[in-house]
Every structure is written in structure tokens, then in C-alpha cells.
Predict the 3D structure of the following.
Amino acid sequence: MAAYAQEKPVATGVPVEVPMVPWSTGLCGCFDDCSNCCLTCWCPCITFGQTSEIIDRGTSSCGTNGALYALIGFLTGCSWIYSCTYRTKFRRTYNLEGSDCTDCLTHFCCTSCALCQEYRELKNKGFDVPLGWQGNMERGTGDVVTAPPPAFGAMNR
């Protein structure tokens, strides 16, 4: 049974189901990028700040999101709640497999692995994550989603 994203309207007004795509790397694929894995293990607020700035398309800053993540973690120990909301936003933006529930479970059980996977996914989409949103736009890098994913299915009149 294949997973599908929400129905998307097409020009004819008939909704078409768009298949979800798998993540480009697994949750435990940290061996592909040991430097980011170590940074995330010791200071996850940096990785979260970098990825969240790109997920927000520059409407928030790396420093602000990273500091808020660290503050929530320091005060409550539950920074995973904040980061799981960004995973959901990220997954929906790129039509990646998963659900809201798995996003929360992933961040609750292994926040570091989830943050590293999101970082790798952005990297595999062409972003130079440490540059942030503006730096990537100036360089013209990154797989910028400006329109909905293509609809698959028969053409209807």
C-alpha cells in the first residue's frame, strides 16, 4: 500500500493524489556526514537553527530559532516538541513520506538523528545549509519549491 499526500486540485478542479517521496537518507545515516553528526550531538541548537532558517525560507533567523530551541530545552527539557513541528513543515514542503505522529515520535526518541537527517536532506537538495536561506538564494543553490509538486494521474476534461 503506497502512501499518498493530501489531494491537490489541478487546473480542471479534479483532485489528484500525489505520491509521497522517500527521504534521501535513512534516520541513522550519520556516517555520511560525521562532522554534522558530532556538532548535532554536542550542540543541536546550531543544526536546528540552520535547518529551520531554510525551512522558514528566511522569515526567521538561524540565531533566533537556535536560541529559542536551546531556551526551551534548558527550561523544560522538551525542545523536541519545537523541532518536531519543523520536521512536519519540512516534510510537507517537500512531500516526504511520514506523518505528524511519526515526526513527533522521531524527535522524541532521537532528536539528534532527526536533525541530522533533515540537515542531510537539505544538503542533498542542493542547499549549503550553513549559508542560510539568503546565502543560498544569492548563490542560486537549493531545490526551491515555489509550486506544488507535479500531479500524477490521468488527464480529465
